[in-house]
Amino acid sequence: MTKLTTPGAAVYDRGQVLTFVLQGSEVMNVTGAPRLGIGLDSLDLSNANHRYAVYQSGSGTNKFVFTYTVQSGDLDTNGIAFRTISNALQLNLAEIGR
Predict the structure, then answer these.
(1) Three-state secondary structure call for residue 7
(2) Residue 32 near residue 93 (C-beta atoms within 8 A)
(3) What is the enclosing helix (H) or strand (E) of 66?
(4) Pairing between strand 89-90 and 35-38?
(5) pLDDT (0 to 100) of residue 82
(6) Confidence grade of residue 45 (pLDDT, cut at 50, 70, 90)
(7) Residue 37's pLDDT band (boundaries 50, 70, 90)?
(8) What is the dihedral of CA 93, 35, 83, 47, to 10 degrees?
(9) What's phi and psi for 57, nearest 5 deg?
């Protein structure tokens, strides 16, 4: 995976759905439910309390779509954080391959 597109800077309300698109250079197939670990100011990327964007679609393409629904208490004033794309993507018992 080579590129991660994130929602634009804005104020989002509880219940709004944020879309993330993870793009690679090759067509890949997905089985299962991978997820993206996202870091917010109100949470820490290094602990079990951070949030996850869940896989929605993209198997058989080079773009995978993930969504996250804003929850009460979520706060981020400087942009959603990812350590790296490879660390953000968590297989969560899913398989991704050609």
Answers:
(1) coil
(2) yes
(3) strand 61-69
(4) antiparallel
(5) 66
(6) low
(7) confident
(8) -80
(9) -165, 170
For residue 87, the surrounding DSSP H or E stretch is helix 85-88
Which residues have C-beta within 8 Å of that of residue 47, sequence separation ≥ 6? none
What local confidence, expressed as pLDDT, does residue 96 receive? 72
Torsion of CA 64, 40, 79, 89, to 10 degrees: -20
pTM metric for this prediction: 0.80
pLDDT value, residue 63: 93
From residue 78, alpha-carbon distances to 9, 40, 97 in Å are: 9, 9, 34
- Structure tokens, 22: 């993870």
Phi, psi of 70, deg, nearest 5: -60, 135
For 19, the 3-state DSSP assignment is: strand
Torsions phi, psi of 15, nearest 5?
95, -15
